[in-house]
């Protein structure tokens, strides 16, 4: 199994007041840098899925993949763009992960890779945006997206993604959606 990571950084961050949430500072480093640090040892390559000016991510020296559709259809479009990029590079799977999840597990890929298609689960909640996607599904997912589907969880369920539980005292899939979440993440890193 050849795995490339696609970091989903194209959201509008409305609950944070707009802007690029993955570029917000967490302990003097952007959230995105924390995500990259967590994923880099687990995959063969990485790319960032984001619309707009790719220069804002230049410091990371990673490909920046825009959605193929201009109307910000959500993370599913980023997953399809990532699959297209990965297929062109010869990868069999992509790991999708949001750019605002700084505590991803060090064994994420190893555990998800026990299944051909798998998504993370913690504390009784499925995280379909944190998933290992077989690239061979890209045309079927593109068709679902073109048909109006926007829910990653629905697509993952439709194509048979298995849930893999990650238990522990802290939620490894904690994501920063609000200023309060950012404060919580700062506190979590301080301990």
From TrEMBL:
Cofactor(s) essential for the protein: Mg(2+)
Positions contributing to GTP binding: 8-10, 21, 67, 100
Alphabetical UniProt keywords: Cytoplasm, GTP-binding, Magnesium, Metal-binding, Molybdenum cofactor biosynthesis, Nucleotide-binding, Nucleotidyltransferase, Transferase
Region entry Disordered, spans: 170-191
Catalysed reaction equations from the record: Mo-molybdopterin + GTP + H(+) = Mo-molybdopterin guanine dinucleotide + diphosphate
Gene3D superfamilies: Spore Coat Polysaccharide Biosynthesis Protein SpsA, Chain A
Comment field on protein domains: The N-terminal domain determines nucleotide recognition and specific binding, while the C-terminal domain determines the specific binding to the target protein.
Subunit architecture: Monomer.
CDD domains membership: MobA (cd02503)
Family: Belongs to the MobA family.
Entry-linked InterPro entries: MobA-like_NTP_Trfase, Molybde_CF_guanTrfase, Nucleotide-diphossugar_trans
A Gene Ontology term for the protein's cellular component: cytoplasm
HAMAP family on file: MobA
Organism field: Pararhodobacter aggregans
Protein name per its UniProtKB record: Molybdenum cofactor guanylyltransferase
Domain MobA-like NTP transferase, residue spans: 5-153
Molecular function terms, GO-annotated: GTP binding; metal ion binding; molybdenum cofactor guanylyltransferase activity
Annotated function: Transfers a GMP moiety from GTP to Mo-molybdopterin (Mo-MPT) cofactor (Moco or molybdenum cofactor) to form Mo-molybdopterin guanine dinucleotide (Mo-MGD) cofactor.
Binding site for Mg(2+): 100
């Amino acid at each position: 199994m050849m795995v490339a990571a696609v970091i989903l950084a194209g959201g509008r961050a409305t609950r944070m007041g707009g802007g690029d949430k993955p570029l917000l500072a967490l302990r003097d480093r952007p959230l995105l840098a924390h995500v990259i640090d967590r994923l880099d040892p687990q995959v063969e390559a990485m790319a960032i899925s984001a619309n707009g000016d790719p220069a804002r991510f230049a410091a990371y020296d990673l490909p920046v993949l825009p959605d193929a559709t201009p109307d910000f259809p959500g993370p599913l479009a980023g997953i399809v763009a990532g699959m297209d990029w990965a297929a062109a590079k010869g990868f069999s799977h992509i790991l999708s992960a949001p750019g605002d999840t700084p505590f991803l597990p060090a064994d994420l890929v190893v555990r998800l890779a026990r299944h051909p298609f798998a998504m993370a689960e913690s504390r009784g909640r499925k995280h379909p945006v944190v998933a290992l996607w077989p690239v061979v599904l890209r045309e079927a997912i593109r068709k679902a997206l073109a048909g109006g589907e926007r829910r990653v969880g629905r697509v993952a369920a439709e194509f048979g993604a298995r849930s893999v539980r990650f238990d522990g005292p802290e939620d490894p899939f904690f994501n920063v959606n609000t200023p309060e979440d950012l404060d919580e993440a700062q506190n979590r890193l301080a301990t």
